[in-house]
Amino acid sequence: MLSNISKIFFILFFYWVALVSAQSSITNYPNWFLYPAQFNSITVGFSSPDSTTKQNAAKMKAVFDSCIVYGNLFLYETIEDDDLNRYSDYYYYYSHPTATKYTTQFVPLDKRIVNILNNEYVEAFSLDSSNNFDFAYIDIDTLKKPDWLNKSFYEQEEYYYSVGMYTSMGKDNDAWITSEERALFNLLRNIYSNIYGAKTIAYSEKESDDEYENITAYKLNARIKNIEIIERYPNKSEQLYFTLIRVKKGNIFRVEWVLKKRCRSVGISKQAVIPTRF
């Protein structure tokens, strides 16, 4: 059994690690990373233990070009709890040959370390080798909070917009990737709820005098084309990372079946609070 001194030591050590991790993150980002909509021929790749920046960029471009989302999503909500608990059982399908093609064709343009302690990088790739881009680095302390930060999902003319957020916990790339996933998750949830409708399938028995739980089910069977990352915003003081995405309304289709022979499943996640990893 740990003594009080040992407990204090472990607590202090934990906070020291968290502080070092936070301070190891960079304070300036490339303009192509923060404002990708201004560099629409560039694809960002994130380094990870599982893949190189080029492999990640190629896979993400293939997914964002065109993917099929197929499966079930359940949302649990109680009257006293505004937070939604999610149970997901669905897949993203994308063209693996397309991702392989991008891996061989991508030209690296710029690379930036984002976390020194964890040796995490982001890298800009393009199919255009001319490299006629005006790159610059932006001090995040000078950034103004964007208007979309206070929104979760909204429509504007011919587009749907969705915002995802995640905390870094000392791992910057994981936070950025997860915020993208949450933005897409939020987009799908709102599209199916507001447009296609959702079915409340069950109510639990009364748990107390003022609390009920309902379960909302979504049958996900959609094809999404040309997903765009519009902007990224890091809130370093709170270690929160935000991503804004958009999809043209005409680029979301309901499908009745999935042809699996020429698509590759990109995983399944149960009891997940974020979408299945790409």
Describe it.
Residues 12-24, 201-206, 208-212 and 258-278 have low confidence and may be disordered. This protein has helices spanning 4-23, 31-34, 53-65, 96-105, 172-196, and strands at residues 28-30, 42-46, 66-78, 81-94, 107-115, 120-126, 137-139, 153-156, 159-167, 199-203, 213-225, 228-235, 240-248, 252-254, 264-265. It contains five helices and 15 strands. 26% of the residues lie in helices and 38% in strands. It has one domain (4-265). Strands 3, 4, 10, 11, 14 and 15 form a six-stranded antiparallel β-sheet that branches. A four-stranded antiparallel β-sheet has the order 8-9-13-12. It has a three-stranded antiparallel β-sheet with strand order 2-6-5. The longest helix is centred in the middle third of the chain and has 25 residues, at 172-196. By secondary structure, it is of the alpha+beta class. Helix 3 packs across helix 4.
